[in-house]
Amino acid sequence: MSPVPSEPAQPEPTEDQAPQAPDVAEAPEAPLLTLRDGLPRVVDTDAGLAEACAAVAAGTGPVAIDAERASGYRYSARAYLVQLRREGAGTWLVDPIAFDSLEPLATAIGDAEWILHAATQDLPCLAEVGLRPASLFDTELAGRLLGYPRVGLGTLVETVLGRRMRKEHSAADWSTRPLPEPWLEYAALDVEVLLELREALLAELEQAGKSEWARQEFAHLLDHQAPVRHEAWRRTSGMHKVRGRRGLAAVRALWETRDRIAAERDVTPGRVIPDSAIVAAARADPRDRSALLATSGFHGRGAERYAHRWVAALREAADLPESELPARSPRSDGPPMARAWAEKDPVAARRLALAREEMTALGERLGMPVEQVLTPDYLRRVLWTPPATREPAALADAVAAQLRDLGARPWQVEQATALVVDAVLRADAEPAPTPEPTPEPTPEPTGEE
Fold first, then answer.
1. How far apart are CA 89 and CA 136, in angstroms?
2. What pTM value is reported for the model?
3. Strands of 170-257, DSSP E
4. CATH of domain 232-324
5. 46: helix, coil or strand?
6. SMART domains under this entry (predicted)?
7. How far apart are CA 54 and CA 250, in angstroms?
8. Cα(149)–Cα(363) distance, rounded to whole angstroms?
9. Is 405 exposed, middle or buried (0-12, 13-18, 19+ CB in 10 A)?
């Protein structure tokens, strides 16, 4: 064996040569999360559901639960897979499409606490199949209360538990049957660590003195329902390019027609025709099929197939009387847009500016997003029409009552009331800024001395 040559001696660095910093090794990547018990089979028979119910009922502690929808593929927001995990019961994957209801599973869970991530996304579709929690713990909301800058499940699991999750199937079409095995593994992993994540986040909440706040927030979520969007057609992307109320009526008619078609076919509306096609047709205002299909930008899978319905919608909009044309701005029962306050009510604008500044500082002190401290709409509503009294104690009581009526939780009322009262009183006391005097125009020289 040949001897290993020795390394040549390195010259000492001279005074004008700074020594090189040693290479810093990169932090090792967090280990990939894997299934502890292997991939469970999908429950899609009555016998399988009975077995799952028996296992869940015999388990102990809270139940981790998740649901997969087909967002971006289907019109409905129904659940196409329900995942559960409980100590002593293991993980179960249930196909809700195979059953009229999952109420037997609800009975098996009983009053056990649910653990969800981003509960508002899953509660409506779980309620559709008969699953409603008696109490819950939302790991995403807990992360927000603790001030984590990113609260996605994968990020929280890596930050809090030091493990890495795969997320490559998050946008899959979960209405597919049979579901591919890699998708099922992804779905099972979503509940694999929720029990452990809950314990870690609960300990942090208790240490931060926020466990009671979290309890109030979780209780508030129990009554959550999917929001009903009024005049949802106004969210059409690119609608700002359409001019006039008649053009808005065309957008509305096309949007509502597309929505009906999408509901009939159970496909996401954008797969019928995209928003850009609605805007293009509303701007061009074609009155027959050939003109519509010749319109630049009017395309999509349903453009030609439903051409007669698009033309009918455009004609309906064209024939509407002026009194039935949509307003340029959406109707609202709340205060005007914040940018309009200075013109409409300068004192209210000062109240809002002062309160926003203090709310930002409060959020920083509490270590959480300012919108988590108090819903911005609640703040605007109280500041636009505050109580009439200016006696501090009475004003505080009235502001607190307003916030409670709007839906603020007790901890939020406690944190925000003094801040709002201070903004109201200070805005009344501070004089409105004096407008700059308009300078007199310089007279034109006459040429006379």
1. 19
2. 0.85
3. none
4. 1.10.150.80
5. helix
6. 35EXOc, HRDC
7. 55
8. 13
9. exposed
pLDDT tens, position by position, 171-183: 899 999 999 999 9
CATH 1.25.40.20 is right for the domain spanning 338-429: no
Whole-number mean pLDDT of the chain? 90
CATH fold of 42-221: Nucleotidyltransferase; domain 5 (3.30.420)
C-alpha 1: how far from chain center:
67
Give yes or no on whether 42-221 and 338-429 have one common fold.
no
Residue 208's Cβ-count burial label (10 Å; 0-12, 13-18, 19+) is middle
CA distance 118 to 116: 6
Q: Which residue has the tokens 């957008």?
A: 251
Q: What is the pLDDT of residues 45-61, one digit of tens each?
A: 999 999 999 999 999 99
Return contacts of 40-45, CB within 8 angstroms, 24+ apart: 40/90, 40/91, 40/92, 40/93, 40/188, 41/93, 42/81, 42/93, 42/94, 42/95, 42/178, 42/179, 42/184, 43/92, 43/93, 43/94, 43/95, 43/98, 44/94, 44/95, 44/98, 45/98
pLDDT tens, position by position, 193-209: 999 999 999 999 999 99
* Contact yes or no for 79/69 (Cβ under 8 A): yes
Q: Are 252 and 313 in contact (CB under 8 A)?
A: no
CA dihedral of 310, 311, 317, 318, whole degrees rounded to 10: 160
Where on the phi/psi map is residue 268: left (φ > 0), alpha (ψ -120 to 50), or beta?
beta
